[in-house]
């Protein structure tokens, strides 16, 4: 039996060979492979859909058994294709040789393609192994790192900071140099181990200036050295051991020496500005240095309000000691404007008058100085919302402050408020070039993306900020919050909250408002109570100039737990606080908007609606895109709480058409937060919520 099977097998394989099934199979495989290569490599170039590529691959696989069967049953002859039994075998030898030649040619082509692709892939692998090319670094670029304080009194650390800052400012006046802003170098503390080559790469500069300051009695010693960050070479070093009264002369001498070492052209005006001391009173300089450090750290800080107020106290002392302290007046004007217009925490005529007085003092001292024009621009923007005037002043200041990122930063904010979001972003990105590790500006870029609903880009900007300051609680908090607004998912922000509570519980105040908001979204009263305790005296929620007090949060929590008595008591307390704010600043729309929201919660319907409408009239979108949009959008909540569903829906639709997207009108907020509970179940409202759901989502899926 086995012998018969062996004979039949030999006969079968002999017949396969005679009928050239092997040859056809080999030829088919080679041709199919070439066809698949063409489909996968060439089709995408012509934007041919991927499903066609997959169809080609599938058809070549299905066609293989068909080709083998046809090779068994048919034969190719000069007269055409015939059934195998009707073929003269003498003719097939010629066609067989042709088929063999064709197979050899196709195999050679396939081998060539294979070798080419292999070599190309190896080149890609080798290229991937190579370290990324360094970004082109300008030869005349420098960063001034924080100076080390060698004095016995640690209070002199501010003196060392002031030394570093003044040298940096002097260098930044030189148009022929690229100088990195102080904000980006603050993290490279002098008492930490510093990898200079790595720092140079991170900041994108060729040179780094290091320094040590020792102050004792009436003497000061300053050691300064210039390092080439590309190779670690010490380019220049100098020690200054002088009377304390000569400290400002030392600063200007160092700046001029650095300019000479970098072969930077120094104009007469630049030389004059560098040689001009900021003050002759060292005590006033210490006060100024402390205040400036507070202001630099104020943004995105939970303690920004008290920090700014403390800075104002220090600056007031400084100008009292030295009434001609020009730089102190410029900083003082900015601090007052910050409270008045940037945060709105003190939007009173008194605060605005203080800012104006500081600007006028600076103008009297140096009317044509670039810093004066910058101070005027800040006053016109934050104080008067005169965007055209502010931009004109910035253009003048730009000529003498080529390395000051504040010019581009402020331009970005102005354009953003005018609704020119893309142009605003471009200016903020230019500011980051001069201040590459300023995570405040990066967070503002993230907010700019959020304003136009581009949450994925917002999160990418936050990731860049976290790469700079990984332990920034504020950035981690805001990043998680963006996920909530984008996808109605409380898990990312709560994961950040859990990490803060586990690693640094004392820092939870920074993220307590987010914690509270997520607890409300999850309808978790116990967690919301814990979050309110962590909020302390801060706002339970704020979005730009819209600030809701802790008492407001307590009332909101009581409403979702159906505790009407507690809710009324809390909202009455919130109203007393807010009414005082409105009395102090009666023409400030955002404050009136919040008062209307509270009155709606207390059932004072007509009063609430009138307050909301007046707030909109006081803050037109045409004049201020950011604040105008907020007031318009939060009025929709007021109308909903007042029982005016139709008006609320109209305002909601108008708010969604506004040029600036509010977080309270995001998909996550509309879907989960109790602010919108009065509208739930209404078909129009549910349709609006569904329209905002991100694609692929399971549901449908300041400055």
Structure report:
The protein is of the alpha/beta class and 703 residues long. 65% of the residues lie in helices and 8% in strands. The chain contains 31 helices and 10 strands. Strands 3, 4, 5, 6, 7 and 8 form a 6-stranded mixed β-sheet that branches. Strands 1-2 form a two-stranded antiparallel ribbon. Strands 9-10 form a two-stranded antiparallel ribbon. Strand 1 (74-77) and strand 2 (80-83) form a beta hairpin. Helix 2 runs parallel beside helix 4, helix 13 runs antiparallel to helix 14 (370-383) and helix 18 runs antiparallel to helix 19. The chain is globular and about 105 Å long.
Global geometry: globular
pLDDT average, as an integer? 83
* Distance from first to last alpha carbon: 93 Å
**Largest beta-sheet characterization:** 6 strands, mixed
Work out the helix count. 31
> What percent of residues are in strands?
5-15%
């Amino acid at each position: 039996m086995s012998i018969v099977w062996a004979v039949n097998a030999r006969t079968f394989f002999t017949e396969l060979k005679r009928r050239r099934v092997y040859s056809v199979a080999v030829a088919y495989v080679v041709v199919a492979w070439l066809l698949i290569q063409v489909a996968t490599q060439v089709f995408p170039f012509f934007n041919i859909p991927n499903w066609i590529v997959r169809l080609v691959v599938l058809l070549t696989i299905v066609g293989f058994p068909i080709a083998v069967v046809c090779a068994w049953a048919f034969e190719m002859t000069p007269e055409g294709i015939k059934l195998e039994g009707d073929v003269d075998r003498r003719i097939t030898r010629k066609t067989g040789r042709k088929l063999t030649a064709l197979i050899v040619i196709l195999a050679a082509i396939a081998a060539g393609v294979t070798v080419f692709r292999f070599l190309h892939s190896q080149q890609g692998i080798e290229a991937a192994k190579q370290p990324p090319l360094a970004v082109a670094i300008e030869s005349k670029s420098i960063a001034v790192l924080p100076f080390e304080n060698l004095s016995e009194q640690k209070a002199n650390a501010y003196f060392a900071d002031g030394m570093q800052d003044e040298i940096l400012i002097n260098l930044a006046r030189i148009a022929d140099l690229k100088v990195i802003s102080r904000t980006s170098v603050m993290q490279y503390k002098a008492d930490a181990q510093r990898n200079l080559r790595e720092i140079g790469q991170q900041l994108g500069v060729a040179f780094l200036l290091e320094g040590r300051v020792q102050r004792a009695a009436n003497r000061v010693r300053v050691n300064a050295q210039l390092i080439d960050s590309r190779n670690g070479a010490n380019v220049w070093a100098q020690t200054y051991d002088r009377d304390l009264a000569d400290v400002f002369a030392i600063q200007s001498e160092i700046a001029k020496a650095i300019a000479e070492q970098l072969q930077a052209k120094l104009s007469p005006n630049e030389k004059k500005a560098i040689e001009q001391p900021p003050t002759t009173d060292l005590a006033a300089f210490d006060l100024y240095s402390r205040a400036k450090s507070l202001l630099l750290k104020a943004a995105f800080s939970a303690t920004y309000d008290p920090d700014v107020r403390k800075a104002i106290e220090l600056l007031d002392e400084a100008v009292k000691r030295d009434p001609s302290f020009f730089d102190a007046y410029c900083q003082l004007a900015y601090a007052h404007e910050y409270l008045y217009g940037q945060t709105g925490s003190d939007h009173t005529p008194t605060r605005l008058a203080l800012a104006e007085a500081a600007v006028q003092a600076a103008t009297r001292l140096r009317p044509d100085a670039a810093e004066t024009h910058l101070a005027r621009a800040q006053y016109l923007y934050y104080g008067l919302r005169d965007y055209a005037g502010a931009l004109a002043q910035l253009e003048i200041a730009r000529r003498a402050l080529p390395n000051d990122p504040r010019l581009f930063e402020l331009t970005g904010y102005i354009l953003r408020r005018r609704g020119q979001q893309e142009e605003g972003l471009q200016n903020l990105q230019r500011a980051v070039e001069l201040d590459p590790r300023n995570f405040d500006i990066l967070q503002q870029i993230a907010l700019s993306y959020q304003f136009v609903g581009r949450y994925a880009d917002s999160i990418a900007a936050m990731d860049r900020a976290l790469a700079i300051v990984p332990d920034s609680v504020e950035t981690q908090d805001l990043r998680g919050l963006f996920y909530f607004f984008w996808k109605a998912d409380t898990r990312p922000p709560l994961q950040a909250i859990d990490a803060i509570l586990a690693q640094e519980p004392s820092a939870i105040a920074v993220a307590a408002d987010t914690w509270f908001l997520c607890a409300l979204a999850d309808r978790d009263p116990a967690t919301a109570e814990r979050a309110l305790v962590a909020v302390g005296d801060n706002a339970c929620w704020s979005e730009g100039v819209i600030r809701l007090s802790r008492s407001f949060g307590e009332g909101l929590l009581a409403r979702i737990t159906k505790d009407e008595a507690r809710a009324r008591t809390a909202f009455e307390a919130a109203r007393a606080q807010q009414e005082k704010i409105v009395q102090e600043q009666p023409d400030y729309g955002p404050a009136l908007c919040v008062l209307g929201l509270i009155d709606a919660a207390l059932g004072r319907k007509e009063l609430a609606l009138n307050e909301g409408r007046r707030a909109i009239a006081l803050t037109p979108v045409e004049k201020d895109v950011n604040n105008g949009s907020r007031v318009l959008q939060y009025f929709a909540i007021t109308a909903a709480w007042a029982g005016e569903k139709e008006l609320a829906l109209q305002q909601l639709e108008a708010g969604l058409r506004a040029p600036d997207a509010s977080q309270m009108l995001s998909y996550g907020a509309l879907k989960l937060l109790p602010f919108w509970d009065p509208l739930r179940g209404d078909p129009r409202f549910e349709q609006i919520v569904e329209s905002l759901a991100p694609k692929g989502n399971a549901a449908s899926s300041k400055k």
